[in-house]
Structure formats: structure tokens, C-alpha cells
Amino acid sequence: MDLFVNPSGELSLYRQIMRQITDAIAGGRLKPGEKLASHRELSEQLVIAPLTVKKAYDELEALGFIETQRGRGTFVCARLPRTNPNAQEDQIREAARKLLSQAYLAGLRYSAMERILKDADRELTSGEKMKT
Amino acid sequence: MTSILEFQNISRSYRKGVPVLDGVTFSVAPGEVVGLLGRNGAGKTTLIRIAMGMLFPHSGLVRVFGLSPTEEPVAVKKRVGYVAEDQVLPARLTIAELIDFHRYLFPHWNDGLERQLLDRFGLSTGSKIKQLSKGEARQVALLCAVCHRPELLILDEPAGGLDPAARREFLETSIQLLNREGTAILFSSHHMTDVERIGGRMVLLDKGKVRLDRDLDGLREEVSMAMVPRAWVPDVAVIEELQGCLGVRLVLDEWHAVFNGNPEAVHRELQAALSINNIRCGSLPLEELFIELVGGDRKEVTAA
Q1: Which residues does chain A have within 8 Å of residue B200's beta carbon, measured at their own beta carbons?
Q2: What is the tens place of the pLDDT at every residue in B94-144?
Q3: Min CA distance, B222 vs chain A (Å)?
Q4: Any bridge partners for residue A27, and if so which?
Q5: Which CATH number among 3.40.605.10, 3.60.15.10, 2.102.10.10, 3.40.50.300 corresponds to the domain B5-207?
């Protein structure tokens, strides 16, 4: 899996890494049990400080997305964290309302939103940006 | 944790009464990457020269691995790698001769690393130093600074005058060194994206003092800029006296004020404190932060 970072992006570097990894897990591009690059490999590949990679991995581990096995490396957790699905659904409904309200205020129609959601789905599963 | 480089209340002036450094205090821990920022003349190079024992501080204390760089220069230099801003290498020597000289000085010279770097930079050891391009000369200087596997690498403007590809190569080499040898790095730079990329922490010098010393993630998430129309708050002191204010600058008809805190919290607090609605808040990249904090001359702001 290819990660990239933008030093002058909106998010701090460790959050950019966290987001790309959770996106890849959500989209199925990173499968449970799959091995991730080591701190050192990723730090050299992205040309960023190894401590930044460590910070991103530590946070993802605390959230239950990845686990470090001593001497073997870092892996996507075989069982991903599940909070209460009902509580999650409530949150997502709320987020959807907010998203639609923002879209309508910006003058977009429902059909445009369907297309945008489809694009986002394809981005998550393929890992490629549809439009920048 | 013991620090490997420590500045305690360092002051230094070149002319009487005009301090270049005026009470600078900070330290670097093992394995840390610290970006030293500041405008031209802020005192970055002077501070680095003090760390290298090339200059005495007029007051204060500098310790490298707990040692004084002026009293125990050999013990310190064995464990430090240094590339100066305008590194002058002996023009008439070949790369091979220069490397031989360094190998002779440093008993722990690592031939494997030397070969690897020569290879990676595509340098041929038979070339004379004076025939090298600026980028190649810097690469040779870096090679000479790191092949004895220093525990601390001090780079003064490592990217100065290099094209983007050469700059990236320089950064890649530094990161690999950090990974393989655990080398701590202190580097001064005007390339903010380089600092954001490889730095864990930044120290901003301004008029001889440390203006800001923060880890970069904290800076991105916990420092924001507020834009307040001057028509609504005519007196800059009202903003400056608010809690968490790091600096204010006038841009056209707006105050640009940097505050401690994330944008939402700062927005809330400012609205409450100033009781006005049209304030905008956002996070800011390092380059903007640099300009906001040390870009404007405060005197002009008050006069405006």
C-alpha cells in the first residue's frame, strides 16, 4: 500500500498517516492480519522522522486497528474494534444530515450527492483519488 | 532523559550593547530532530558555532554530551558531525584525498557507509573538489560529517542553494542516519516544509531569544490564527493582552493574531472576550506561523 504525506497539508503528518491507514482498512485495501511497513521502512519511504510514524502507529494501536507483535512487526488487527453498532448508526445518521444540509446550502442536489458518495466509495476501495 | 546538547541562558554579542543571542535556553535529547528557525540575523549560525566550540558565549553555559566544547574540543568533535552554511572544502584536493584525511582523523570511520554514500550521490572519488557543483560539494561535506557515525549531527542551512531533488536526497540521507545510528539532528533552515517533514520539534529564534519551542504536531493542532477586523478592535493591546496570545500583526485592515489553542476553542474564547461576531479562526502551516510571528516589525504595527 502506498502512503503519501503533504507537509503543508491541513492535518499534522501523523494524522495524515492515520487517516490513510484507516481509509485503507475501511475500503478493504488493507485486510485483517496484513503486515504494515515498519517504522523505519515507512519513515525512509516518506522521508519523515521515525518518531512521527511511531506516533501514528501508537495511536492506531490504542484505537484497536493495528497490533505490534514483538519481533514480527505490525499487523492490521484480525478483529477490528466494534463499538455498539446502534450507537454508531445514530452518529452516522447525524453526520449524514449535516452533510446533506451543507450540500443543499452549497446548491447541490440529492442526485449530485449520490454521485459524490459513489466516488468516495470508489476512492476508499481503490485507493485512487477521483478528483482533486 | 539526559540531553546531548544543552544551551543554558546563552548570550553573545559582536558589538557592545547589540546582543545577537540574548539568554537562549533549550536542549536536544538523543534521537531527536530539532529544526532551528529564525530570520536572517536571528542568531542561528552564532548559536551553532557556540555549540561547535568555534565561539565563546559571553555568558551562559553550553554542554555537548555534558562536556564543554571549548575545553574538551577533541572529545566533543569525535562524536559530532557538522556541516557549515558555507562549507569551504580544500579546492585542490580530490574527493579521495579529502576522505583519506577524515579517515585518518576519525578512528571509527565507517568504510561501508562511505561507499554507500559515494554510490548514492554518484560521486567519483577522483574528481577535484573545485570541479564539483554546489550540490555535489555539499554532499561531500555531508559524507565527511557523518561517516564517523556521530551521535549528534549539526547542519547549518543544509538545503541552502540546493535544487529540490538534491535537497530531498540530503533529507533522505539524514533520515536514514537517524534510523540506523540513532543520530540526533539539529538543523537550521528556511525551508519550512523540510522542517515540517523531518523535524519533531522546532525552536524559533527571534531577536536573540527563543520565541517558540514546540513539538510540531502540537504546533499544528494547538496553535491557530485569528483574523479580527481592525475597525472592530482599534487598539492592538486589547488583543495582545488576551490569554494565550503569541503575537499580532496588521495585514491591510485586519489583525492577524496567533493564539495557543485549537481553532474552535480560540474562536469561542475570542468571541466571548471581544463580544464581536466577525472573527475567523484557522490552523496555520509553519510557513504562515513563521511570517505571523517574526515577519512583521512590531513598531510599524503600532505606528499604523
Answers
A1: 49, 51-52
A2: 999 999 999 999 988 999 999 999 998 889 999 999 999 888 898 899 999
A3: 11
A4: none
A5: 3.40.50.300
